[in-house]
Every structure is written in structure tokens, then in C-alpha cells.
Amino acid sequence: MTLIKSKGLSETQFNQIRQLEAVCNDFGGLTMKLNLETLRQRKEDEINDFLMVEGEQLIGYLALFIFNKAEVEVSAMVHPAYRRRGIFKQLLAAAQTEVARRAIPHFLFICERGSVTATPVMQAIAARYDFSEYKMTLQSPFRSALLVPELALRPVGPADLDLLAHMDVTCFNVSFEAASQYIGSKLDDPYRRVWVAEFKGKIIGKIHVSVVENESYINGFCILPPYRGRGCGKTILSRIVERLVAEQHEIISLEVETENEHALGLYKGIGFEVVTAYDYYRLPVS
After folding, report:
1. Angle 7-18-73 (CA atoms, 0-180°, nearest 5)?
2. Which residues have a Cβ under 8 Å from the Cβ of 93 and sit 6 or more positions away?
3. Distance between CA atoms of 231 and 208, rounded to whole angstroms?
4. pLDDT for 184
5. Which residues contact 102 (CB under 8 A, 6 or more apart)?
6. Is the pTM of the predicted complex or chain greater than 0.85?
7. CA distance 35 to 62
8. Cβ neighbours, 10 Å, residue 103
9. What CATH topology corresponds to 2-133?
10. Do domains 2-133 and 140-270 have the same CATH topology?
11. What's the rounded Cα separation, in Å, for the pair 249 and 264?
12. In this predicted structure, what is the pLDDT of residue 186?
């Protein structure tokens, strides 16, 4: 077995990851979260992917996703035929060295709740439960709710960058620097579209759609606090879903924290239903 610390991902490596994902999903009846949109565009001057291979076969994989300086999200998988051989332990050790070098203090492991192996592994490495998210998928029929007809959506432009970053600071509690870098990197992304919502001449919210193969993910959705509770969120979501349905997107999904009852009610009211849950576990890097 050989461990590869990869800077960027080749097309061959990306396809091997997808094949291993399919094997693991089929074996465990899962829907693993691998952030495929991010994997497509890995930076070639950073090590974010750790691959264990035997011959030409990928048998283990660990991915780092760094959205802020406080933590690094981790997705990992091992081929069912090669489990209990210490592969995850080797991948994690290599990742730990890299993350420590970048001075990021915490791992945040993404574990699908339906996995019979994820929780015991988290217990074995003494990671503590942090929070959970539901993945929700639009089920027919879509129920439109245009409660604020004067609200308009338009595609985002470079002049909106600072305002969008400030929205992420306010709504998602991230740093302005991290938000600016992330949003700026997505403006020219062919797989992502971003809209801002305007109400009476003011930008009050935003929403993103990422396309990964046959699935479209709604994310980065937020409304500034003074405009919440007025039906703006439901109107924005309805307009976007209406557009995606008209464009014949095959699967439309989103994720929401399990404790966010208001958002859950909003999404269910439009026609989304829970399909799986992801539990997040935190572990100090050092």
C-alpha cells in the first residue's frame, strides 16, 4: 500500500474517488458528503487530499475542506474489503501533520448518521459530537410561495463582492477575509451561480446554486436580520426552485442544521424532505 499526499487532483484521481464513493455508498446504503464541487477545483499548490492505493486501485481516501482558519472539515472513506487494516489511521496521521503545519486548531469530521462504522471510529479517536445537518431533497409537487412579489433576484456581479462577504460575516459568523476569498473564487465558477435579492432598492439577501453532475445544491442562502420574518426567505427560495424546476434540474437538494426549526419549516413548506443526516465530530489537531 502507498499513501499519496496530492497537490490538486488529476482527472484519473477524481474518477477513482468517485468509484470508491460509489462502492462505499452501495455497501453501506449511504449518501456520502464529499463536496465534489470543491474537489473539481483543488489548488495545485496545497495538499488537501490523501489517497491510499494498492497497485492502481484507490482503497482509502481522506479530504480536507478549509472554509475558515478555526477548523478543517474532513471526509474520509475506506474500501469495505480493506477495512480494519489501519488505513484510516494512516490517512489521518498524514492529514494531522499537514493541518498542524497550517496552524489550524480543530478537525471537524463529517459522518453520515446511517454509517455503522463512523461513530465507533469517532469514539476510538476521542472526537466529540458537535452538531448535525439534514440533507433535504425537493420532492414533487413543488409548492410555490411568492409572499413578497416586489422582491427581485439578479445575478451577482464583482461590485457586490464586499456586500456579500459582509452578509456571510453577519449570517454565518465567518471572518470577512475568509468570506471575501471564498466568494471571490466562485464568481467565475462555471458550476456555481449566485443571486442577490433586492427589496425596495436594497440588497437584503443572497442564494447560491452549485451543480454537481445531476444534482443541484442550494447553499449560501441568507437574509439580513432586519428583513427576516416577512416572507422574504420563502419568496427567494420559491423563485430559485421555480427556476431550477423550469430548467429541468434532475435533483434539487440543500442542507440545514437539525436544530434550525424555522429553516426546516421553510424548506418543508416548499416541498423539501429529509433524505439523510450528517453528524459532525470535533477533534483538536494537536
Report:
1. 55
2. none
3. 19
4. 65
5. 66
6. yes
7. 12
8. 8
9. Aminopeptidase (3.40.630)
10. yes
11. 22
12. 64
Distance CA 285, CA 104 (A): 7
What are the pLDDT digits (tens) for 53-99?
Answer: 999 999 999 999 988 788 999 999 999 999 999 999 999 999 999 99
Could you give the 3-state DSSP secondary structure of residue 30?
coil
Residue holding cell 434550525? 260
Q: Please check the confidence at residue 133 and state whether its pLDDT lies above 70.
A: yes
Cell reading at 218: 442550494
Domain residue extents for the chain: 2-133, 140-270
Which run of H or E residues covers position 278? strand 272-284
Amino acid at 273: E
Given a contact cutoff of 8 angstroms between Cβ atoms, the answer to whether 7 and 53 are in contact is: no
Distance in angstroms (rounded) separating the CA atoms of residues 189 and 117: 35
Residue 185 is predicted with a pLDDT of: 64
Spatial CB neighbours of 117, under 8 Å, sequence gap ≥ 6: 28, 83
At 117 the pLDDT is 92
* Digit-coded pLDDT (tens) for 181-224: 776 666 677 788 899 999 888 999 999 999 888 899 999 898 99
Q: Which class is 140-270 in CATH? A: alpha beta
